[in-house]
Give the backbone structure.
Amino acid sequence: MAEKASADVGLIGLAVMGQNLALNMADHGFKVAVFNRTTRVMKEFIAANPDTPGGLVGCENLSELVAAAKKPRKIVILVKAGPAVDTVTKQLIEAGAEKDDLIVDCGNSQWTDTIRREKEFSDRCRFFGSGVSGGETGARFGPSLMPGGAADAWKHLEPIWNAIAAKVDAETGKPIETAKPGRPVKGGVPCSAYIGENGAGHYVKMVHNGIEYIDMQLISEAYFLLRNLLHVEPEELSQIFARWNEGDLDSYLIEITADILKQRDPDHPDAFLVDYVLDTAQQKGTGKWTSINALDMGIPANSIAEAVFARCLSALKVEREAASQHLIGPEYQYNGDRNELVNAVHDALYCSKICAYAQGFQLMRAAETEYKWKLDLASIASIWRGGCIIRARFLQRITAAYARDPQLVNLLLDPYFKEQIQRNQTRWRSVVALAAQAGIAAPAFMSALAYHDGYRSAQLPANLLQAQRDYFGAHTYERIDQPRGVSFHLDWSKPDRRQIKITDSH
Ligand code: 2AM
């Protein structure tokens, strides 16, 4: 039986993420009241963790949980994203949760659902949506946390969120990774910051995942190009990635890539695991949501979408195998310098990565206007430096870029990133050209370069395109010698082809 109102925080849903977040909070001295729909799971969890610093209070129903939590209550929900979040929130309110209480959905909810819920429950509780990144290990020892909800309620959650988040070094921005069960990290800057109203936290978490898709795809393409052009074994590639991890590309994803590539296959000790893993990627949807949102807002996040499509194409394994018998590519043999190619792929990866992040940050900029949020992009970059899957040295650079200029229109325009691309673009282009020549699919590298070249072009072929639209659909065009907003239509079907001025909004 739960004690009376002694718990600092409540948590509902004891699957792995829920258990790990509860243990993380308890490690930091918070007393956590826990509930799970299936009581046996809760009892087993309590029995398995008798001695946490903060203590766990097992609750058999939601009324017990509500009674156990100190006011204003902070109740974390970690149930399956979707209708279960609505059900549990309503049940919590029925069980006695009050207007000042914070109900914090830490699942992978769509930000639009969080906007709806915050509004729907606004006179019953203070509904928060918090992105949590870093997988199971992150939840246990320090995730990156992206909370969104009412600004005046944030102060109640902040101490807990700051305590359990991953920590980075204040000077270098490097993750401090020494947490052990019962022994949390001391010091450092927490990877947690208030993101904005209602769905802003879940939105930013979604963009994080979209960036993660393209980051992973770029790394996979770098591997694939080197593998196919140099005909090297995974172990040698592992050493290359490990070396890259010492420099500008230093990141969690490069680090695990180096580790994966040297892994031998458990069933074939002479071979490498990566060669036995079927080349079909699955997805849970956050990359797709990011791309759909980019399309909805009209923001060119083409590389993020390309990364989603690359997974879709990979999933057509049977079709690709059949097509490979019929559609013949070029004969190509790379005869150049091996080191030069390795360095060029490194630079191509770095330049493409800059473009990928530029797209993700441009998306968040647009979302500010779309959803009436005020997003601090430097702060968002800073909380991705540790805890999450895309954590990287690179994010220290992005943090610095937005700190230098909070109104920065595009990351590509920041002096540091501008200089990097300037310096490395010849090699980036040579890698893309090589991929095309050799017939090796490198959609992420190519789309990133297309984004860069499109963005830096004052002139694009949309003049012809718009004329086509006017030709077949009378969609009108603006003219370079007239003010913006003044539209014209040419009477293409008539012999005299007269131009008609349609609107003048000025
Ligand atoms: P369970 O152990 O009873 O299945 C992940 O699915 C977590 O969410 C589990 O802890 C699961 O509880 C919980 N969960 C899923 N749907 C739920 C619901 N509608 N109400 C309460 N908990 C739910």
About this structure: The chain has three domains: 9-198, 203-455, 462-504. Residues 13-15, 18, 36-38, 41, 79-80, 84, 87-88 surround adenosine-2'-monophosphate (CB under 6 Å). The radius of gyration is 26 Å.
